[in-house]
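4.2 Preliminary Data

To establish feasibility before requesting continued support, the project team ran the inverse folding procedure on a target of 732 residues. The structure was first converted into the token representation described in Section 3, and no sequence information of any kind was made available to the design step. The complete token record follows.
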């Protein structure tokens, strides 16, 4: 897992910033027809939505006093969802519910393959660890956060000061808003911060998750690909205590009654129709330097893509021999596969567009612009050179740092042991001084995540992963050795020593028992040491290295936050162009049209696929094994009233030029009137590059058509009670 890819197996706001904020407001009003942009709530009132072809107003989208569409949009786990009934029914993606059904599955009760359908509220499936957030309000707290900084601080001190101030703000906000959840999000790097208040629901249950042959039709062959024929949708339901307050799971809880829920429009949309999305996109990186892009292209993404591809092959091999292992590794394989193919697409797109060279040339022009402006040069003259120095240093230590990081996240036994040791130290600190995952507000989620990781543990897979990381560590260069591993396996006879250690460690450890692991959570370091567990002992030896790595990362983050903020300032001034804040997991809006595109020379892709494509792809074998009921209804052309009037058949998926990224999975695709017409789940292959650079010519996103969702739910699954709950009426 080297960066050479030799896998053995296989400050306060500057005047510039203030001016840019003012310019942003003015320029947004002149770009109503633009398709690019994941617009924050704070910018909605400045958009000319009517000129963009939308019939909804900004106030109808977000109105804290009277309610708006935003009240129906939720963050569910790492995805987006939306309320579609007064009884807390939520629609999201199949792949967003995948972990829920995986945890509930056994070889004799395989919800992954067969799907899950509740016959009523009492039989809905508790979604362990899954939560729902609803945005209530936002407040600019930039001055408060940046007030924690001083010019004399070192970079590591800056990171810690910002983190502590944010914790203070969050704690006060949650005290002032009982029962709510508060989060502070960085909008412009090192420059602006927003405090968001959320309703936080902890009892979520699965209602209907279609079988894998529908929800994952096409599998990895079709992932990130157009045309698409995947029914990537699922229904969940949110519950609260009888008094309406958020509560943990209890049979006595009642369905949550949302302030707003979306109207489902069974007529759908057609080619050229105006649409928009509200959702919680994860991260984009469009305001970064060529040094960042070059590091991503040369080092980080290739390493992760190759690592994940190898880990997937190991897990698939284990699953082919053991049905239980197949179930326990299914969610992890799905997650790693998604990232792996995403990164492969990004790397291909970066090379095709020669993105690094283009940004490097642009950075050269930016440096000349800075040098030619004495006041600007005084502040930013050395900025790009300082960024270059940081990334050179990161390249030098990449093999060492990545080996440590991914060994922890890949090897379940080591990860569990390190989490127990972290808990032992962090839980003895005052709450606001702890690492975020061990603060009281996050502790339940941390414990649930630990328990689930051990529940999904497959010993043979874990052994292979640990062996590979030990052997990689043995090949690290001088000055970047992992001394505790060298001590264990020596420098000669490395493979046999590694095998001997692994055999004995896995024979004697008790950390594969989830109940035992949870009984250790919160015990002191000395008590944990007394168990003399091989993985706790290994973690005790490695932990100083992880602490040092954390300190290094904090100092690096402090420097990059300052420099990336300066870079965005200077670049905006140079280009005389307003920037929309990069996506950061907060609620955003993007708009555009149902529109095809030309993915290659002489090719044009239409923006709507149909049921015929499902049948044409069907082979009877995974991942193209269409359920017999689907084929039967297709042959009868029994589409009820859901067939497209223009295409005279049932439509399946939609393509559009909206600006989306990870986290938008499950986002509602809305027509011009704000009605639900689809559920976003993917991007076309070339559009993965839009995390770094967006262009209408290739940026296309994909949704499952609501007509297909309704047909699959009512006609195929026989769950007409759900379409009735949505207010759609009979499908016949």
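Position-by-position output of the design step:
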């Amino acid at each position: 897992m080297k960066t050479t890819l030799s896998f053995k197996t296989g400050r306060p706001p500057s005047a510039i910033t203030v001016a840019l904020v003012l310019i942003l407001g003015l320029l947004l009003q002149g770009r109503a027809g633009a398709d690019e942009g994941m617009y924050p709530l704070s910018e909605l009132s400045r958009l000319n939505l009517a000129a963009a072809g939308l019939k909804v107003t900004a106030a109808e989208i977000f109105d804290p006093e009277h309610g708006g569409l935003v009240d129906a949009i939720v963050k569910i786990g790492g995805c987006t969802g939306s309320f579609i009934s007064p009884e807390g029914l939520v629609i999201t993606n199949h792949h967003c519910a995948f972990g829920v059904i995986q945890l509930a599955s056994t070889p004799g009760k395989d919800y992954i393959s067969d799907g899950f359908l509740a016959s009523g509220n009492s039989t809905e499936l508790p979604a362990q660890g899954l939560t729902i957030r609803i945005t209530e309000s936002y407040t600019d707290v930039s001055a408060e956060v940046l007030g924690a900084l001083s010019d004399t601080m070192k970079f590591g001190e800056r990171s810690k000061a910002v983190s502590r101030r944010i914790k203070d703000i969050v704690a006060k906000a949650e005290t002032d808003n009982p029962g709510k959840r508060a989060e502070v999000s960085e909008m412009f790097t090192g420059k602006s911060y927003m405090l968001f208040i959320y309703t936080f629901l902890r009892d979520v249950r699965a209602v209907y998750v279609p079988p894998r042959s529908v929800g994952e039709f096409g599998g990895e062959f079709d992932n990130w690909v157009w045309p698409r024929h995947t029914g990537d949708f699922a229904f969940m339901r949110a519950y609260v205590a009888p008094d309406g307050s958020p509560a943990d799971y209890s049979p006595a809880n009642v369905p949550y009654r949302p302030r707003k829920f979306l109207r489902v429009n069974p007529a759908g949309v057609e080619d050229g129709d105006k649409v928009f999305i509200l959702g919680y996109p994860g991260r984009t990186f469009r305001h970064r330097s060529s040094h960042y892009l070059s590091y991503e292209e040369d080092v980080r993404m290739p390493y992760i893509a190759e690592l994940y591809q190898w880990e997937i092959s190991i897990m698939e091999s284990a699953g082919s021999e053991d049905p239980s292992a197949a179930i326990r590794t299914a969610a992890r394989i799905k997650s790693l596969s998604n990232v792996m193919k995403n990164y492969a697409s990004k790397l291909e797109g970066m090379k095709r567009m020669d993105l690094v060279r283009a940004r490097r040339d642009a950075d050269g022009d930016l440096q000349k612009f800075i040098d030619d402006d004495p006041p600007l040069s005084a502040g930013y003259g050395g900025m790009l050179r300082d960024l270059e120095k940081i990334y050179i240093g990161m390249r030098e230590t990449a093999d060492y740092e990545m080996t440590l990081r991914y060994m922890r996240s890949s090897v379940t036994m080591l990860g569990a042991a390190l989490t127990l040791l972290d808990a032992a130290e962090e839980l003895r600190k005052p709450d606001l001084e702890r690492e975020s995952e061990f603060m009281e507000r996050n502790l339940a989620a941390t414990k649930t995540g630990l328990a689930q990781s051990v529940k999904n543990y497959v010993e043979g897979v874990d052994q292979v992963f640990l062996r590979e990381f030990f052997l990689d560590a043995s090949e690290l260069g001088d000055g970047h050795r992992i001394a505790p591993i060298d001590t264990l396996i020596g420098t000669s006879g490395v493979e046999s020593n590694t095998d001997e250690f692994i055999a004995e460690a896995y024979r004697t450890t008790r950390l594969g028992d989830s109940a035992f692991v949870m009984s250790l959570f919160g015990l002191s370091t000395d008590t944990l040491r007394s168990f003399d567990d091989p993985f706790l002992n290994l973690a005790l030896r490695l932990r100083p290295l992880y602490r040092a790595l954390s300190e290094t990362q904090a100092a690096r983050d402090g420097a990059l936050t300052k420099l990336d903020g300066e870079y965005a300032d200077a670049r905006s001034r140079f280009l005389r162009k307003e920037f929309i804040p990069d996506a950061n997991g907060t609620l955003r809006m993007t708009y555009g049209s149902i529109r095809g595109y030309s993915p290659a020379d002489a090719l044009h892709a239409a923006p709507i696929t149909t049921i015929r494509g499902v049948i044409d792809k069907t082979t009877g074998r995974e991942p193209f094994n269409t359920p017999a009921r689907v084929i039967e209804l297709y042959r009868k052309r029994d589409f009820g009233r859901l067939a497209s009037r223009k295409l005279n058949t049932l439509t399946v998926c939609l393509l559009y030029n909206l600006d989306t990224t990870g986290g938008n999975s499950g986002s509602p695709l809305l027509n011009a009137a704000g009605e639900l017409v689809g559920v976003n789940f993917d991007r076309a292959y070339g559009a993965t590059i839009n995390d770094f650079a967006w262009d209408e010519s290739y940026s296309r996103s994909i949704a499952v058509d609501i007509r297909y969702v309704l047909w699959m739910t009512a006609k195929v699954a026989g769950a007409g009670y759900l379409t009735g709950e949505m207010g759609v009426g009979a499908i016949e």
